[in-house]
Design brief:
The complex is a heterodimer. Chain A is of the alpha/beta class. Chain A is 67% helix and 7% strand. A four-stranded mixed beta sheet of chain A has the order 2-1-3-4, sandwiched between helices. In chain A, helix 7 runs antiparallel to helix 9, helix 10 packs antiparallel against helix 13 and helix 10 packs parallel to helix 14. Chain B is an alpha/beta fold. Chain B has two domains: 169 residues, Rossmann fold, CATH 3.40.50.300; 66 residues, no CATH class. The mean pLDDT of chain B is 89. Classes of the chains: A alpha/beta, B alpha/beta. Chains A and B meet through helix 1 and helix 8 of A and helix 2, strand 6 and helix 3 of B.
């Protein structure tokens, strides 16, 4: 019966807090409507300058193809390479495409490269992506020209790419499940830690400790409201993604909830650990910041784990976000069942058990 | 336990590493007594009091509080004691009645009993106008009185007050001591720590701690006679003079 009074207290305090209820509403909205655009690796509107020395029908077709790809915006056709370089120097051009005068001849006999690419890499990732897009455009153009000629000879191999699970290579749909991961971790791990430390700082926890109430009941009642909030955020993120972008979960939504439940066990342990080791909000904030940084950067949410060096990959096995984000993406994008991603469940479970045990042991020592 | 003693402590010791915060203290407190627990900062008062409240375990020594052992029966002790700390410890973001209701609920009182006691507390403190105010918004003196009433909501046998009148004006202090006397008249034992030596005079008996040891336990009257002092302040200074920790 005691827990009814405690839950009443926690919910009242939650909704009376000047910031928390607002965050409850704005978090899912930001997560789905703003962040997927902000963290997108897609580059559009690359400013392209062309130096066309060929001035032929073929060169016109090549330029047209590049512009129609949707990634480039043709700034101008410069008459001289110097003019094009000037535009790049004043940051008006991201890429320069130089077409040599013998374009048609080279295409026909195919001895050397008939075009040159120069990219502005002041913004490194934008530059390399621009170079990639541009060379893709050109090579597919060259391939199309050649195949057209050799069609009469028959016998040609066409290589094409087909994407599964995210057909249109939409980066946003890739980020939505991963951003939910970050939101859930914040809400269920770090907020309760701050809440407990806050009671330590104000001295109210001392008053609670002299009552016969069990510490575990007290802590559990602190965590429950945040769990409710976590499931609310998960549901509303899925709902908003569906209403606004038309994204739906390819797998079972129930599996998403199960994994969220598992992850919550881990974050609860982490939150308790932080609260055990900090006496004031400042220390708790600092630890939260440290863990959140490390967790996010080596989680595979923003950068693929497979492209990390072996030692960094080894570290990711200790990161609960790795397992949760992996499972969320597999279930949401690919429709994996729980048993197909059992290893993620196992990883979360083991880390959860370790964190909980550590939290309980470190708490007992304090007496 | 001897009849009439509600707290009985023998050879209580608490060590933190090599530092002995409480060094073999022994004393008893009678039922319904107002017992003043005096000592300079760092003398070990708070540590000793935390053990009596079941918040911490003694390194050695034994004792009973409200009939339960301080070694292993802490949870039973907690049912029969009330506690109010020097740091104001109600929830500032809950209303007056919500704080009363919360602690009533924590001590396992029935819904009906909680409602009755809420009315009684608000009535006796004259806080009708503040019933729906957040505790954070009411004056310090009222908060202190409310905290004391809430510490007694489950009708405990003993109430521990850790510097209850710190930071309040003399008038509120006087009213607070009236409340302590009322509680004592109802048979509740009061165990109070304080820095104010004039308040020590209000106690039935006092103990004075110096460097983790109890150097004197008796009524203020006897102590004053023994040390030929005109007030408790002089007694305290005479005894605390030999302190090394100061």
């Amino acid at each position: 019966m005691v827990w009814i009074y405690l839950l009443e207290k926690e919910f009242k305090q939650f909704f009376r807090d000047p910031g928390l209820p607002k965050m409850l509403i704005s978090f899912p909205l930001m997560m789905v409507l703003v962040f997927p655009f902000a963290v997108s690796m897609e580059v559009r509107n690359i400013n392209l300058v062309v130096v066309d020395n060929s001035c032929s029908v073929t060169s016109e077709r090549l330029i047209d193809k590049c512009v129609k790809s949707g990634y480039f915006r043709l700034v101008e056709k410069s008459s001289t390479p110097e003019r094009a370089q000037y535009l790049m120097d004043i940051n008006k051009a991201d890429a320069i495409l130089t077409i040599s005068s013998d374009l048609e001849k080279q295409l026909a006999f195919g001895e050397s490269l008939p075009v040159g690419i120069k990219v502005n890499t002041i913004n490194g990732s934008k530059g390399s992506i621009a170079a990639g897009y541009l060379s893709n455009c050109i090579s597919s153009f060259v391939a199309a020209e050649n195949s057209g000629e050799r069609l009469s000879a028959g016998n040609h191999i066409e290589v094409s790419t087909k994407f599964y699970y995210n057909k249109y290579m939409d980066y946003k749909v890739f980020m939505v499940p991963a951003l939910i991961v970050i939101a859930i971790t914040m809400i269920t791990g770090f907020f309760p830690a701050l809440n407990i430390v806050n009671e330590k700082e104000k001295g109210t926890i001392e008053q609670i400790n002299v009552t016969p109430i069990r510490r575990s009941t007290f802590i559990l009642c602190k965590l429950i409201p945040y769990w409710a909030v976590a499931f609310f955020i998960l549901s509303s993120c899925l709902f908003i993604a569906w209403i606004v972008f038309g994204y739906t979960c390819a797998g079972s939504i129930f599996t998403l909830f199960v994994f969220t439940g598992l992850h919550i066990m881990v974050t609860a342990g982490l939150g308790l650990l932080i609260s055990n080791y900090s006496d004031n909000a400042q220390q708790a904030m600092f630890m939260t910041w440290f863990f959140m940084m490390v967790f996010m950067l080596i989680s595979g949410i923003f950068t693929p784990i497979a492209s990390m060096p072996a030692w960094a990959q080894a570290i990711t096995y200790l990161n609960p976000l790795r397992y949760y984000a992996d499972a969320m993406r597999f279930v949401y994008l690919k429709g994996s069942t729980f048993f197909e991603v059992w290893y993620d469940a196992l990883g979360l479970f083991l880390i959860g058990v370790a964190m909980m045990s550590w939290a309980i042991l470190s708490y007992r020592k304090q007496e | 336990m001897e009849s009439g003693h509600i707290i009985e402590i023998r050879g209580l010791t608490k060590k933190f590493g090599t530092f002995t915060a409480v060094d073999h203290i022994s004393f008893e407190v009678g039922k319904g007594e107002i017992f003043g627990f005096l000592g300079a900062n760092g003398a070990g008062k708070t540590t000793a009091m935390k053990i009596l409240c079941g918040l911490s375990k003694p390194t050695s020594g034994e004792g009973k509080v409200a009939g339960f052992s301080i070694n292993g029966e802490q949870e039973k002790i907690k049912r029969h004691i009330g506690y109010m700390s020097q740091k104001f410890s109600l929830y500032a973001d809950l209303k007056v009645w919500e704080n009363i209701r919360l602690f009533g609920g924590i001590y396992g009182l029935k819904r009906k009993v909680i409602a009755e006691r809420t009315d009684a507390i608000i009535q006796s403190l004259g806080m009708q106008d503040w019933k729906d105010s957040l505790v954070g918004s009411i004056p310090q003196g009222w908060k202190q009185k409310l905290a004391f009433s809430i510490a007694m909501i489950h009708e405990p046998q003993i109430v521990f007050l850790d510097e209850p009148t710190g930071g309040v004006d003399p008038e509120t202090r006087r009213k607070f001591w009236e409340m302590i006397y009322e509680a004592s008249d109802r048979g509740i034992t009061i165990f109070v720590t304080t820095h104010y030596m004039d308040e020590a005079e209000y106690c039935d008996r006092v103990s004075i701690m110096v460097d983790g040891q109890i150097v004197a336990v008796d009524s203020p009257k006897v102590l004053k006679e023994k040390y030929a002092a005109e007030n408790m302040d002089v007694v305290f200074r005479t005894l605390a003079r030999g302190s090394i920790r100061q």
